[in-house]
Amino acid sequence: MSISLGFEIRKKLSEGQKDFKNMDLKMVYLERVDLSHTNLEESDLSYANLKGVNLSCANLKGAYLERANLTDANLIAANLKGANLQKACLIGANLRNAELDEVDLSGARLSGANLHEALWTRIYYDNDTEFGAEFDLNLLKDKKTYNLDLFSEQQITIEKILRQLNVVYKSAKYYLGNKLATKYLHDSKPNLDWLKGFEIDRNGEIIFTGALIEHVGSIETKLMEKLTEKWIADFTKNCALIIPHFSCPLDREQDK
């Protein structure tokens, strides 16, 4: 911990300074210091010891607080919009009326923290985030939470689907031509909102332009794969109506 930097900040606070915007405060030691109403916007407070600190009404917008110790911190009405709190310790922190929109809580420890009265439209977390037994994501209303681990799984699934679709579509264009292959591709697509995100770009490649689905888990991603398999199977059948010996190139890959 940077004790000397902590003394410097304490001195400036005693002189009435409140503006510490965009400062490098990595590993600063400020345990139980009164930082209320200070401006720490976009400052780097990673690995800082802020245990029991008073940050009420402080501006921490876009601040970097990775692995910071904010145990029992007073963050009432603090602005943490867009802050990085990855792996931060917020055990017992008071976040009542704190602005947490777009905050990254991946790997953060929040047991005993008051989050129910915090303000946000969306926050991000992952499977390592510890919310504590008293906090139930399912009871939230008008608030969105995004599990980044599940989003990663969904992105991998989409990349796999795109590869499969493009392999089959390319083969169909070779035998049927671009116009007919494109028609059969669209005609075979299941009528689901999520699949509407798959489109053909100017280069003739199938791309995904849709948005990732909130709260998607492993079961849902498996369902996405099954729906794609049906789409490809129906597409292959339609192509075979014109080219009787047309078969899915993915099946040929598996046979090798």
TrEMBL record:
Q: Which InterPro entries match?
A: 5peptide_repeat, Pentapeptide-BTB/POZ_domain
Q: Which SUPFAM superfamilies match?
A: Pentapeptide repeat-like
Record field: transmembrane: none
> Which domain of life, per UniProt?
Bacteria
Q: Which PANTHER family match?
A: BTB_POZ DOMAIN-CONTAINING PROTEIN KCTD9
Q: What is the protein's given name?
A: Low-complexity protein
Lineage of the native species? Answer: Bacteria, Bacillati, Cyanobacteriota, Cyanophyceae, Pleurocapsales
